[in-house]
Amino acid sequence: MNRLLRNLLLPALAAFSMNAAAASADRPNIVFIYGDDIGYGDFSCYGATAVQTPNVDRLAREGLRFTSGYCSSATCTPSRYSVLTGEYAFRKQGTGVLPGDAALIIEPGRVTLPAIFKDAGYRTAAIGKWHLGLGDGQREVDWNGDIKPGPLEVGFDYSFIMAATGDRVPCVYVENHRVVGLVAGDPISVSYKKSFAGEPDGVTDRAALRMNWSHGHNQAVVNGIGRIGYMKGGQAALWHDEDMADVFVKHALDFIEREKDRPFFLYFCTQDIHVPRVPNPRFVGQTTMGARGDAIVEFDYCVGEILKKLDQLKLAGNTLVILSSDNGPVLDDGYVDGANEKLGAHKPAGPFRGGKYSRFEAGTRVPFIVRWPGKVQPGVSEAMVGQVDFPATFAALTGQKPARATMSDSVNVLPALLGESKTGRDHIVEYAQEGGVSLRAGDWKFIPPGLVREKLGPWKSYQIPEPGLLFDLAADPGETKDVAAENPGKVRELAARLEQIRNAGNPPAEAQPSGKKRPGKKQQ
Ligand code: NG6
Ligand code: CA
Fold it and tell me: What is the 3-state secondary structure (H, E, C) of 301-326?
């Protein structure tokens, strides 16, 4: 074979054989099921009794349930940014909760979680909520033309998404580069600045809404629900809120079916249980908690459908499933849907303080379950693991060493994820747009001065004074007793460490070796 032929043919053949090979022990399929606003206490396997989640519980029973699993932020966009890039979102301007017409915040060409999988020969798909922006920011997105860059430009082979959130326009699905179901003669216009003449809005048409708003959500009215932002046109393309779970699940199942013979990575992001909570009628009334509880049941159904499909195709043994949430729980997040009134004794945040938007634990400590039959011993793990660790961890799983420059906060926690080690990270930064960062290091939790949010909506925000709050999570997981005054040295140490992480970046770290002794509680 001459050199030219060899140079051309061999890589092509290698790529072909890699792609054609089915999932294997070093390249299992990966399904990441990413819930929205689901709290630590919202599943029955995490202690809920007012709602039953048999499918999530099955995952937990057959897998490893983490008690210190973290998203990286107390809201959606920054958490998702970290999952896909391996970088803490507080490092980058413009990663806060995005409007539906925002530009893509991940630079095409950057090392991303899906790109890592792609390099290992996986087929990759993003299905469901995106909320990381679309378009290049140079010009406004044309919702009637090609919408890019987006998921396909940052490592996904296929995408079927909503641009932002269920409560933000445009209320349409985008498949790859195109809005689905758009018909000629009814183009879509979107604006977050001005309303469109003649269109209903949530203020003047409030009485006609089928779900009243409590704050915000009073601009465009789509399907009788007030939204954030204005839109016009695209009538045939509008989603139906009560069908969204089924639509996303169907596309997820189709993707699994299509790719069953080669390794795949499915990034499956449900719209549940974010507002507006509009579960399908068949789930309405399944709990006594109203729409929020019923949306949890709908989420659990989606999980069940995916597990069933893996079983049917005999892929379960070759598939690592991870389930988690993008931030902690919230009750009234802008609509009058009974979430507060019907809560009863249910504790969405479990034993933790705060919730969505908060630097207290419940903002970022979320359900976190890993199942890989035959590889991950079922049980409960106290290892500290973060979603920001996915890029480094899955690079390790697939035998790769991608350039670390832009994923500097991602730690390889593979041994912890597989249950081979009892310890994962030794610290994690928790972040809320309001107030900024806090730090958990071992069992210590330090919240520097600044704003912090309390409660699950309506909230109470207040200033934490100097020198900040310190909690001993081992003795006090609910962050009820500030021990900063008794431990001034610890406060100084953690403040300095946080400052160093903040300023210098977080040097790549490996997870702690298994069995490492935890730091003594009162050491300073
Ligand atoms: C807030 C919205 C809230 C929710 C949140 C983003 C108002 C008053 N509140 O601004 O309803 O959409 O943004 O949630 O508009 S997240 O889970 O996507 O981060
Ligand atoms: Ca969220």
Answer: HHHHHHHHHHHHCCCHHHEEEEEEEC
| C-alpha of residue 214 to centroid of ligand 1, in Å | 12
**Interval 218-254: pLDDT, tens:** 999 999 999 999 999 999 999 999 999 999 999 999 9
The class level of CATH for 28-182+237-426 reads alpha beta
pLDDT at residue 22 greater than cutoff 90: no
Cα–Cα distance for residue pair 489/485, rounded to 1 Å: 10
Q: Domain spanning 428-504 has what CATH number?
A: 3.30.1120.10
Q: Are 299 and 272 in contact (CB under 8 A)?
A: yes
d(CA 354, CA 377): 32
- The number of the ligand 1 atom at minimal distance from the alpha carbon of 75 is 19
Residues 6+ away with beta carbon under 8 Å from 116: 155, 391, 394, 395, 398, 400, 402
Whether the predicted pLDDT of 336 surpasses 60: yes
Average pLDDT over residues 253-282: 98
The domain ranges of the chain are 28-182+237-426, 189-232, 428-504
Q: Which residue CA neighbors atom 18 of ligand 1 most closely?
A: 76
Q: Where are the beta strands (DSSP E) in 42-141?
A: 64-70, 123-129
Peptide bond into 170 cis (omega under 30): yes
- What mean pLDDT comes out for the span 102-108? 98
The C-alpha angle 6, 12, 17, rounded to 5 degrees, equals 120
- Identical fold for domains 28-182+237-426 and 428-504, yes or no, is no
pTM of this prediction?
Answer: 0.93
Asked whether the beta carbons of 270 and 32 are under 8 A apart, the reply is: no
450 SS3 class: strand
16 pLDDT above the threshold of 90 = no
Helix (H, G, I), strand (E, B) or coil at 23: coil
Note whether 176 and 159 are within 8 A (CB): yes
Query: Distance between CA atoms of 463 and 452, rounded to whole angstroms?
Result: 6
Mutate to test the pocket of ligand 1, among 169, 333, 358 (most ligand atoms within 8 A of CB): 333
Q: What is the pLDDT of residues 393-440, one digit of tens each?
A: 999 999 998 887 788 899 999 999 999 999 999 999 999 999 999 999
Task: Name the residues around ion ligand 2, CB cutoff 5 A.
Answer: 36-37, 76, 326-327
